[in-house]
Specification:
Elements: H1 3-26, E1 32-35, E2 38-41, E3 55-58, H2 65-71, H3 75-78, E4 81-88, E5 91-96, E6 100-104, E7 110-113, H4 116-122, H5 126-133, H6 149-157, H7 164-170, H8 176-180, E8 183-188, E9 192-197, E10 200-205, E11 217-221, H9 222-228, H10 234-237, E12 263-266, E13 277-280, H11 288-295, H12 310-320
Antiparallel strand pairs: 1-2, 2-3, 4-5, 5-6, 6-7, 8-9, 9-10, 10-11, 12-13
Helix pairs in contact: 4-9
Length: about 325
Amino acid sequence: MSHRRVVALLLLSLLAAAVLPWHQATAQAPNDFPIPGGWFFSQANGQGGGGQTGYSVTDNEGIPFWTWFQRYGGVDEVGYPVSHRFQWNGFTVQAFQKVVFQWRPDQGGQVWFVNVLDELHHAGRDQWLQETRQVPPPRDWSDDRGLAWPQVVQRHEAILDQNPAIRQVYFSKNDPVLFYGLPMSAQDFGNVFVIRAQRVVFQQWKVTVPWAAAGQVVLANGGDLGKEAGLYPGWATTPLPPGHTPPPVTPTPASACNGDETLAVIPPNPTTTSPITVSGDLFSAVDERGADRARQPAAHRHWCGGKGNRLELQRYAWSAGRLSLHV
């Protein structure tokens, strides 16, 4: 081999050694990786894990969501995060594909699961669930009142006798009530038999569909259903790069609402055509003053309604059709 050829090969080797680290550094970043106090996930950012945005699960601020995420079994059991932390019904929560974490400092610092399907019911989303996802509305369980907890569980779990395959899947968990909640209703839709629980929906398909074989039982994730139905604030479900935090929500002082309720509008000064998020306690804005404010949000940084509940506001907000509202 000539001296000139040896020099040429040496130069090529040096170039390859120099280029390789650059190539590796510019390759696509991993979909999830450790961050201070927890882990960052981009898999459920709506871009197939691309775009370098996502959601962090951490133990920051003394709220050990990352610790409990691992304790509950991680991604396999609760799914990927689909939101940042946010305040909901007076508690700090974070939505995952399968469940929604709820921090309970009043219960010894535990993390519980939210009954997402119950919340969808309270938010008036039963018709949407039935028409778009073939999920039956819950039965009337008012006669549970006064019964001992084991009796309540037994009554609800009797629904599972209508479908042995779903029953088998339900009881495959060591603690099915923890992960799935209580069964609430059942319905045969012809092509699929569905049992609605408090935290998940069970479906046994009678025909082969792209996501299930005939006879297979699949689960519709409660956390995902809540996100799809607009149950969570829009800012809380907007993916962000690692290290970025959502804008803070500053509640209106109770005095501004005569002590009835507190709430905040995000962004604080929206235009009349921009989507907004309303975050706060139970309130109503179905009176004429509330209607005027909904039509002219730019003139009102905060809203104060009369005594009422979330359902009243949501019915008004959705029927108005001019704003995207999440309560």
